[in-house]
């Protein structure tokens, strides 16, 4: 089977289609090019940046700016039929601007808020435009498999060397990244160094070991359950396995979640009494039982079994203090200013949904999470009505996205990982909403 056969096949398991040719391969790559550019830019280290008027243009931002005219053309041409999820994503992005304008004023608010919107909405729209269905997603996974494997291989190499290799190399060329306080650069950032289980936690080209692990771990259910064969499957599988080199509790929990969900899917197809609804209700019941019966609640039970209970306890404190600030500023947040906390706690917030609520207010978080949950629900409801191969892949998409959403309660998203999350969400939205589900009604 040639590369053209693999990419041009309409079958979910990539049987050779009639008339497949190199021209088909070129057409597919051209159609996928915006998503490919954005994905590969998300794999590049942030040290590869341009500084223009004090604004850092990282690789994924440069790609976004380059793709912006194409995104506008897709919207104007009517290729995108806007759904309720799209409107929620636009509302969440608009709330970023509103919250910053309220806090900083019109001029500074538009500039600072606009940079954050450019990190979110264009990535979503690129995924929304390029990945229309499961076949598109499979083709995309084939084309990004080499990059994913290379990213995982760099993490493996750093584990063997027990030192960072990729980012220091690019820092010598482009300079070290700055540290930020209240959204302003205050000097060079210190390199992250942490040892767990006797091994250095590595990040490869990514911004942080946790984000490196989550990026690769989120690829695992997509490749394993896609039906893709031969080298793209093995490349993606190896890349996903390399997530373990981040040695992160959040990543291990995501991997356990993947194994649990796929294991239950296999079991419930063979035991008639088992259903997904019963699994969901049982999970909710167990969580409520642990919350009531345990000494300090469900979170304390989870923390007890993490690789670093001290880090987990600190994140619980972050939630306690952070939620107090959210209650005090529920509508527009506090932008980049510090939230009130114990004097010894740093100003970082390692939880995406809490960070967004602190920075922009509750409405922004509600818009984004509601959009994601609607998409997840619609994809999940399609699974029982699909054939075996496509249904399995759709379930893999649900597992990948839901694992990222859950990780957002313990990890802050930034850099290339944030780009990947919103691009994947955009692609899932296209698959979730058929034409009759669009607001146009056509």
Q: How would you describe this structure to a colleague?
A:
By secondary structure, the protein is mainly alpha-helical. Helices cover 65% and strands 4% of the residues. The chain contains 17 helices and 6 strands. The strands form 3 sheets. Strands 1-2 form a two-stranded antiparallel ribbon. The longest helix has 28 residues, at 134-161. It is globular, with a radius of gyration of 22 Å. It starts with a helix and ends in a 10-residue tail after the last helix. The model is unreliable at 1-20 and 436-442 (pLDDT under 50).
What is the element layout, followed by pairings?
Elements lengths: L2 H6 L13 H21 L7 E3 L2 E3 L1 H18 L7 H21 L1 H25 L3 H28 L4 H9 L3 E4 L2 E5 L6 E2 L2 E2 L8 H16 L5 H12 L7 H20 L7 H18 L4 H7 L4 H20 L23 H9 L1 H21 L5 H20 L7 H18 L10
Antiparallel strand pairs: 1-2, 3-4, 5-6
Helix pairs in contact: 2-3, 2-5, 2-6, 2-17, 3-5, 4-5, 4-15, 5-17, 6-9, 8-9, 8-10, 8-16, 10-16, 12-13, 13-14, 14-15, 15-16, 15-17
């Amino acid at each position: 089977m040639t590369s053209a056969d693999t990419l041009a096949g309409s079958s979910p398991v990539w049987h050779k289609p009639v008339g497949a040719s190199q021209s088909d391969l070129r057409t597919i790559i051209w159609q996928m090019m915006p998503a490919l550019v954005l994905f590969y830019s998300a794999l590049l280290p942030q040290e590869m940046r341009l500084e223009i008027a004090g604004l850092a243009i990282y690789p994924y931002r440069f790609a976004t700016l380059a793709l912006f005219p194409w995104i506008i053309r897709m919207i104007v041409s009517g290729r995108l039929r806007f759904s309720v999820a799209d409107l929620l994503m636009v509302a969440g992005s608009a709330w970023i601007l509103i919250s910053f304008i309220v806090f900083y004023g019109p001029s500074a608010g538009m500039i600072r808020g606009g940079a954050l919107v450019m990190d979110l909405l264009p990535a979503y729209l690129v995924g929304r435009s390029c990945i229309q269905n499961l076949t598109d997603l499979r083709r995309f996974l084939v084309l990004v498999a080499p990059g994913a494997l290379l990213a995982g291989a760099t993490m493996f190499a750093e584990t063997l060397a027990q030192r960072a290799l990729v980012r220091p190399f690019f820092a010598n060329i482009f300079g070290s990244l700055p540290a930020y306080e209240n959204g302003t650069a205050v000097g060079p950032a210190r390199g992250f160094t942490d040892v767990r289980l006797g091994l250095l936690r590595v990040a490869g080209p990514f911004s942080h070991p946790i984000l490196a692990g989550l990026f690769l771990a989120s690829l695992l259910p997509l490749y394993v359950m896609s039906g893709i064969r031969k080298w793209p499957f093995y490349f993606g599988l190896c890349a996903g396995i390399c997530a373990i080199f981040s040695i992160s509790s959040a990543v291990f929990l995501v991997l356990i979640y993947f194994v649990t969900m796929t294991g239950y899917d296999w079991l419930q197809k063979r035991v008639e009494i088992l259903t997904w609804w019963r699994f969901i209700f049982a999970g909710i019941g167990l969580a409520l039982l642990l919350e009531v019966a345990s000494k300090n609640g469900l979170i304390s039970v989870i923390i007890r079994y993490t690789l670093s209970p001290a880090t987990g306890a600190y994140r619980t404190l972050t939630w306690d203090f952070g939620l107090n600030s959210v209650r005090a500023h529920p509508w527009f947040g506090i932008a980049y200013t510090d939230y009130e906390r114990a004097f010894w706690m740093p100003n970082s917030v390692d939880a995406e949904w809490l960070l967004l609520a602190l920075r922009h207010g509750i409405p922004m978080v509600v818009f984004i999470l509601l959009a994601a949950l609607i998409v997840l629900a619609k994809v999940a409801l399609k699974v029982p009505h699909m054939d075996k191969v496509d249904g399995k892949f759709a379930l893999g998409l649900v597992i990948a996205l839901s694992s990222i959403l859950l990780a957002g309660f313990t990890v802050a998203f930034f850099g290339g990982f944030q780009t990947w999350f919103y691009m994947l969400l955009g692609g899932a939205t296209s698959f979730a909403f058929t034409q009759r589900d669009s607001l146009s009604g056509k």
